[in-house]
Specification:
By secondary structure, the chain is an alpha/beta fold. It contains 13 helices and 15 strands. Strand 6, helix 3 and strand 7 form a beta-alpha-beta unit.
Length: about 375
């Protein structure tokens, strides 16, 4: 049993029993499959039952639970996250923290900020993960949020996967440097590995992305239409989301539907990378996208919008593949990498091996989870 029955109040719900192992309370704006959830699952699966995890999704969506191995002690306590005004929510969350007494609270992004206020009322040790911004903060920092982060996160340990975010936290939010931890995302080099040269006569451009507005797959379709007008090519889109019907209509309107495959969600995207000749990223906003790391580990050249740390992540040889946020620029980048020597992909693999080890990522996160920054 995950909990020690003898230490439980007779009236406390089962998820509130005290754990034999250190228990972490994780709060995500949403626990659907995405980069933050995939990284958390990779770390939790790596350490197995060394920690127990209680996971709260502020929107109530927990489909990413399927990413966790059966051996990982994890539960999803039912906590009302949206009812009431700010003071009522913070009071409710503080009461939950006092009742469950996790070893650490681990919050994710602005969408979990109410829990950081609750943490301030309870003194619960706290780690905050900042992965990036939604559409409302994509192009500029909002003054109210800057001041809030500056005030409420000063006594928390802050994990930042990208140099861009590190700069923001240090110079705009003005958080104490000793509290800031730049921990790049890491990749499993055995799972994501070069599979040999792709032998198809028609080159395949591929992307792996949730079909959400910030990924701007419409831009990729427009760029592909430009490429397709100049040379034969195919496009494979791996991912699912609410935008799919509109994107399928857009592909038809552009006249490229016959050359575009919507493959849907895949739990094993590495199988698709093996069939790509070029990986494409068309996002409006990213910080350190896992999909680019996966493509690099698989030895692929990359054509990507110039967002977040992407330029720094990629090998120098891949520089012609960096594009401005327009379909025409992305098309030029795709054409450039399609015409360049195949050594770009090998250079990206070497860069990933040198800089983005999952072992280093695991160790750094676990140190903070254990209170040893």
């Amino acid at each position: 049993m995950r909990w020690m029955r003898s230490l439980r109040s007779p009236t406390a719900p089962r998820w509130c029993m005290r754990a034999e192992r250190p228990r972490l309370l994780h709060v995500f704006p949403s626990f659907v499959v995405g980069g933050a959830q995939m990284r958390f699952a990779a770390i939790a699966n790596h350490v197995g039952d060394a920690f127990a995890h209680s996971i709260i999704a502020m929107d109530g969506r927990t489909t990413a639970r399927d990413l966790l191995d059966a051996s990982v002690p994890a539960d999803f306590p039912a906590v009302e996250t949206r009812e009431g005004n700010f003071a009522a929510r913070v009071g409710r969350f503080a009461g939950f923290l006092r009742q469950t007494r996790p070893q650490r609270l681990v919050t994710s992004n602005w969408g979990s900020i109410d829990w950081v206020f609750a943490r301030a009322l309870t003194g619960t040790p706290h780690v905050h993960m900042e992965d990036g911004f939604g559409s409302d903060e994509r192009d500029r920092q909002l003054p109210r949020r800057v001041l809030t982060r500056r005030a409420i996160l000063r006594r928390s340990e802050i994990i930042l996967p990208s140099q861009t975010l590190l700069h923001i936290a240090r110079n705009i939010w003005r958080l104490p440097v000793r509290r800031l931890h730049h921990i790049p995302n890491g990749i499993d080099f055995l799972r994501f590995a070069p599979r040999g040269a792709h032998q198809a006569d028609t080159p395949v451009i591929g992307t792996v992305a949730a079909l959400r507005p910030e990924k701007n797959i419409g831009r990729l379709l427009e760029a592909f239409a430009i490429v397709r007008a100049r040379r034969p090519a195919r496009l494979i889109i791996v991912g699912e989301g609410a935008e799919r019907p509109g994107l399928e209509q857009r592909a038809a309107a552009l006249g490229v539907a016959a050359d575009v495959t919507f493959a849907g969600h895949s739990a094993a995207p590495e199988k698709f990378y093996a069939g790509f000749d070029v990986f494409a990223l068309s996002s409006d906003t990213e910080q350190m996208p896992l999909s680019v790391l996966e493509a690099m580990a698989c030895g692929l050249p990359v054509a990507a919008t110039d967002v977040g740390d992407v330029r720094w992540m990629l090998a120098e040889e891949n520089a012609p593949g960096i594009a401005a946020k327009s379909a025409a620029a992305l098309a030029d980048a795709l054409l450039a990498v399609l015409s360049m020597p195949c050594g770009i992909g090998a250079a990206n693999r070497r860069r990933a091996e040198a800089q983005f080890s999952d072992a280093a990522m695991f160790a750094a996160h676990l140190a903070l989870w254990s209170g040893k920054p």
